[in-house]
Amino acid sequence: MAVVVPTLPELFEDAYERVGLEMQSGYDLATARRSLNLLMLEWQNRGFNMFMVDSGTLSISSGTATYDMPVDTIDVIEHQIRTGSGTSQVDYNLGRISAAEYARQGVKNVTGRPTQIYVDRASDGVHITLWPVPDQAYTLSYYRMKGLDGLASGIGTTAGIPPRFVPALVAGLAFDLAVKKKPESAPALKALYEEQFQRAADEDESRATFRAVPDMRGYR
């Protein structure tokens, strides 16, 4: 039997019902949509969740050290310089350095196979700088933490949210709506939201024996 996930309008209605209210107008829909978008941003600040991880590659050019990551990137969590292809392919791990460590690097323009990466989480996006400056064409292989899509208009879907996180989504929406419309019910709904999110986050961990944790020292 397939997993049944309620539609987004149904989730909005359930969130309102938890607050003890009904969604009756277009404004009620608009404020629920706003709360959903803010909730998606708040989840990004809660850190690492498996469903937010995406892999990719980036072509590296000789003599160019700095590159832009895809626009929805929150952070780069794994990074390797790749040489060769097929059976001759080799991946070399890059050490992540902080802004201070990169600034103290006295010979920034030396060329060679990159061994370090500085990740700049700027307000206009995530940019990476490799050191040494690449001496030839390479491929950057990476895993990144990507952002969650919000709703610019309409009612959309929950396609970007795994079913295991949908209960936390509804609980979070109910809490946010309560803060705006029925503050006296907010504390109880917040406690339920935190419980639901933690339960989903605990289940979302990697099943591997070894689990890597991103180095927080390089964060802006």
Description:
The protein has 220 residues and is an alpha+beta fold. The chain folds into 2 domains: 8-48 and 149-203, no CATH class; 50-146 and 210-218, no CATH class. Helix content is 32%, strand content 25%. The chain has 5 helices and 10 strands; from the N terminus they run H-H-E-E-E-E-E-H-E-E-E-E-E-H-H. It has helices at 8-19, 26-45, 99-103, 166-181, 186-203, and strands spanning 53-60, 66-68, 73-83, 90-93, 95-97, 111-112, 116-122, 125-131, 133-134, 138-146. It has a 4-stranded antiparallel beta sheet with strand order 1-10-3-4, with no helix packed on it. It has a 4-stranded mixed beta sheet with strand order 2-8-7-5. The protein has a two-stranded parallel ribbon with strand order 6-9. Helix 2 (26-45) crosses helix 4 and helix 4 runs antiparallel to helix 5 (186-203). The protein is elongated, with a radius of gyration of 22 Å.
Task: Outline the fold blueprint.
Blueprint: H1 8-19, H2 26-45, E1 53-60, E2 66-68, E3 73-83, E4 90-93, E5 95-97, H3 99-103, E6 111-112, E7 116-122, E8 125-131, E9 133-134, E10 138-146, H4 166-181, H5 186-203
Parallel strand pairs: 5-7, 6-9
Antiparallel strand pairs: 1-10, 2-8, 3-4, 3-10, 7-8
